[in-house]
Amino acid sequence: MRYSFIVNPNSRSGMGGMIWDMIEPELKKRQVEYECFHTACTGHAARIIGGITSDGKEHTLVVLGGDGTVNEVMNGITDLDKVILGYIPTGSSNDFARGMKLPTEPLKALDMILKPRRIQRMDVGL
Question: Helical H runs in the chain?
Fold first, then answer.
């Protein structure tokens, strides 16, 4: 399985970039196949995801960022039924992670993504 990581390096005043620097060596150690895209400005995550998901294939996306980054990613997905979304919270409030009962510790969140016990469907308003 190939993972597409969307990283907001500026979330929580640069914490997103530091957390990615902790996550990436773990991905390499576990020999995970992945690609990484860093966001540069507001709206960039949606554009990146639109490009990734426009091929009509199934994708596993992992967001490293805050609530705003998750929102942008979800808005950029072209076919929600073909996407599995993972989340490693790096924002200041992380309401989405709290609401979904996701771990806030980055390596625990990564482990949950790489070894999921189950996949939970989400009702996403349009």
Answer: 11-29, 44-53, 67-76, 95-99, 106-114
What pTM value is reported for the model? 0.92
CA-to-CA distance for 61 and 4, rounded, in angstroms? 5
Each residue of 20-57: pLDDT tens digit? 999 999 999 999 999 999 999 999 999 999 999 999 99
What element of type H or E holds 83?
strand 83-89
Neighbours of 38 (CB within 10 A): 17
**Does residue 40 contact residue 47 with C-beta atoms inside 8 Å?**
no
Helix (H, G, I), strand (E, B) or coil at 63: strand
One-letter amino acid identity for 11?
Answer: S
Q: Which of 4, 125, 126, 1 is nearest to 62 (CA)?
A: 4
Q: Which residue has the tokens 């790489």?
A: 114
